[in-house]
Write a structure and sequence with these properties.
This protein has 16 helices and 16 strands. The protein has 416 residues and is α/β, with parallel strands linked by helices. It binds NADP nicotinamide-adenine-dinucleotide phosphate. The site of NADP nicotinamide-adenine-dinucleotide phosphate has 25 residues, from α4, α5 and α8.
Length: 416
């Protein structure tokens, strides 16, 4: 292997994707058992590698040189073979600095709580110190020297200015979990979550709702890869961080469609998915598939509240997808949890068709007559508007609506 990533489990890694956007070298993913890792490190048969769990500390004894930041942190994620000498660096450190600076988060003199005590928590502590934090508090599930527990953290909640999450809580597939309740920190002004899948974790979304600065870890992931590639090639690639981040962000995002029954979510959604090469899902179709019966049957046998639970489960599982167009049922907006879940990986688009163009059909239990349809419209219209990142007034033909939707979404992505 010339360039690549070594680790124990690499199934969900984005690294190959990122490096292929950066340079034209071959970048391989190489899963190694502990024994294989030792043989690999001893062989020195590579030009440059990234190192991930569980080998970031274990690689250190095999190195000839270690950079000051990697030595301070006690972990190495990048190794360059310089004419047979192995030099180790920690580009996660620079990646996290870049993420915090990109989001204009100030840590100078601030009290920073770091959640988790694993490898990345050491990087986060080094970064917080580098950026001038006044006090750094490490938080663990287990009571130990130098750390406090989550209960103790809530006890001093009023003194915390910023939280950096370095636990895997909230990561795919458990995207509904949240490591702390940010609402319990009255002085909180920033949240940094190093998790990048989903793009926005439950913690980030809750912090955003509080009106404070919050960011997920994708930019850090891209930046650390760019800095690693610079070490591999011995040249500056700094300007590529934003471009590669934008490309990657767009390629992972979903487009979620909300709106009334018969507004055209499925028809427009399928056309958009086809044009962009995305997968297409419809939450109602998913329910029908799992239940093996029609929506009307579910409503008539088990009632609306049972259906809404199925809908929430279906939307939670679709929300974990990436690179998909997701059409939701007309009533999905009635439960805010559905919108929160969709937002983790999606831009939310309201397909806004005027009431007079909507059609009532017998197979739609809550809008089977024009009167019922009008009532539903009046109940929901404000919710659709409130939850939408984009409102798409539809009229004209499918092709025109598709093109307008794609250009509106692209504009929205540019601002992320
Ligand atoms: P790690 O060494 O396994 O440490 C994670 C720590 O989180 C553990 O030491 C543990 O601390 C805590 N933790 C684990 N499971 C938990 C649970 N169920 N509930 C609460 N706390 C839990 O992992 P890591 O290498 O530091 O990576 C952590 C996360 O950072 C991963 O999600 C990884 O993908 C992400 N990461 C992102 C980037 C990026 O570029 N964006 C870079 C590196 C890592 P306690 O036992 O003390 O509670």
């Amino acid at each position: 292997m010339k360039y690549g990533l070594i680790g124990e489990k690499l199934g969900h890694s984005f690294s190959k994707d990122i490096h292929s956007k950066l340079c034209d070298y071959e970048y391989e993913l190489c899963e190694l058992s502990c024994e294989e890792f030792k043989e690999f490190a001893k062989s020195r048969n590579f030009s440059g590698i990234n190192v991930t769990i569980p080998y970031k500390q274990k690689i250190i004894p095999f190195l000839d040189e270690i950079s000051p930041e990697a030595e301070r942190i006690g972990a190495v994620n990048t190794v360059v073979n310089k004419n047979g000498r192995l030099c180790g660096y920690n580009t996660d450190f620079y990646g996290l600095c870049a993420l915090i600076q990109k989001n204009d988060i100030q840590l100078l003199g601030k009290t920073v709580a770091i959640l988790g005590t694993g490898g990345t928590s050491l990087t986060a502590a080094a970064v917080a110190q580098h950026l001038g934090a006044g006090r750094i508090i490490k938080v663990s599930r287990t009571k130990a020297e130098g750390v406090i527990t989550y209960d103790e953290l809530y006890g001093i909640g009023d003194s915390i200015d910023a939280i950096i999450n370095t636990t895997p809580v909230g990561m795919f597939p458990n995207i509904e979990s949240c490591p702390v309740e940010p609402e319990r920190f009255s002085r909180l002004s920033a949240v940094v979550d190093v998790i990048y899948n989903p793009l926005r974790t439950q913690l980030v979304l809750r912090a955003e709702k509080m009106g404070i600065k919050a960011c997920g870890g994708l930019y850090m992931l891209v930046a650390q890869a760019v800095f690693a590639a610079e070490y591999f090639l011995g040249e500056s690639l700094d300007t590529k961080i934003d471009r590669v981040y934008e490309e990657l962000y767009c390629s992972k995002q979903n487009i979620a469609l909300i709106g009334m029954p018969s507004s055209g979510k499925s028809t427009i959604g399928k056309a958009v998915a086809k044009e962009l090469g995305f997968d297409f899902f419809d939450s109602d179709d998913e329910i029908v598939k799992t239940e093996s019966r029609s929506i009307s049957e579910i409503f008539s046998v088990d009632g609306e509240s049972f259906f809404r639970k199925l809908e929430t489960n279906a939307i939670a599982s679709l929300s974990a997808k990436q690179h998909a167009v997701i059409a939701t049922g007309g009533g999905a907006v009635l439960n805010e949890t559905n919108i929160d879940n969709l937002r983790k990986n999606s831009v939310v688009v309201f397909i806004d068709r005027p009431l007079e163009q909507l059609i009532s059909t017998a197979d739609r239990p809550l809008s089977s007559t024009k009167e019922m349809l009008t009532q539903r419209y009046n109940e929901r219209i404000e919710l659709y508007r409130k939850y939408a990142d984009i409102v798409l007034n539809v009229g004209g033909d499918v092709s025109e609506n598709k093109s307008r939707l794609i250009s509106a979404v692209r504009k929205e992505w540019e601002h992320k």
